Amino acid sequence: MKSVILCAGEGTRASAHTNGANKCLTEIQNHGVLIDYSLKTAIELTGVAIVLVGHRAEAVREYIDAFVTKYYPQAQLYYAEQRERRGICDGLLCIEPLLSGDDFLMFLGDEIITQPSHKKMTELFSHSGALAVCGYVRAKNIGDVRKTYSLQLTDGKVSDITEKPSNPVNNLMGTGNCVFRNTFLDHIRGYCKKTSSYKPYFSFPDVLKYAVDSGETVLACEIGKAYLNFNYMDDIASFLQGE
Predict the structure, then answer these.
(1) Euclidean distance between CA atoms 155 and 199, whole angstroms
(2) Residue 133: CB partners within 8 Å, gap ≥ 6?
(3) Total structural domains within the chain
(4) Contact, 220 vs 148, CB < 8 A?
(5) CA separation, residue 160 to residues 154, 191, 213 (Å)
């Protein structure tokens, strides 16, 4: 298994704070630089990190190279570039050659989860044979689920997934910390064909729902306490208050 960290986006919603820099390089009070969390967690879990770069790619690579050299010199580090920002699913297809058919853990470079328990998620994945396991946290404010995606469970399995739901039915807040079989990439291509999309601009929750509706098993695992997905300054304030 390999780890994939996606940090190619421009972060336009956060641009007022980042001044055009990649938002993954934003410093967070008591947490260092935002991408530190994903790098540390990814490398400690698998020893291999594939980083997707795009916006301000040179600055991101420079920071990551220095971080890994200092703290994880034995880690295997690779880069892929997404030249046009077309979303997460397109980004995963960009890194496909570097996966060499392996299953993978996905991280978003603009996320932090406190008290993470990814080992529990990877063990569930290994023992279940599921296509994917989605990491979630329990939102203190159910309205926060509207910022990411919702998960509905039936008999322990994910039965429905909705990106940015207008009326969440529970407080299970999906994160970008998930683990996938390599065949998930085939579902991206299948969904692209089904929706007649020339390029996969759609979200990974859309593809997971498509896979579930096609009969695939997708599971969910609670993987932490407080959660930050940085798009606005209010996101950081809420995260720090909720720790």
Answers:
(1) 35
(2) 121, 122, 124, 125, 178, 179, 218, 219, 220, 221
(3) 1
(4) no
(5) 9, 16, 8
pTM: 0.90
What digits encode the pLDDT tens for the residues 60-112?
Answer: 999 999 999 999 999 999 999 998 878 899 999 999 999 999 999 999 998 88
Q: Supply the CATH number for residue 76's domain.
A: 3.90.550.10
Q: Which amino acid is at 212?
A: V
Distance CA(45)–CA(144), nearest Å, equals 28
> Could you give the CA distance from residue 127 to residue 129 in angstroms, rounded to a whole number?
6
**DSSP letters along 168-228, please?**
-SSSEEEEEEEEE-TTHHHHHHHHHHHTT-SS--S-HHHHHHHHHHTT--EEEEE--S-EE
* 2 contacts 105 by C-beta, under 8 angstroms: yes
Please, how many CA atoms are within 13 Å of residue 153, restricted to the half-sphere of its CB?
16
Task: Tell me how far apart the alpha carbons of residues 107 and 11 are, in angstroms, rounded to a whole number.
Answer: 16
Which residue range(s) make up the domain with 80? Answer: 2-242
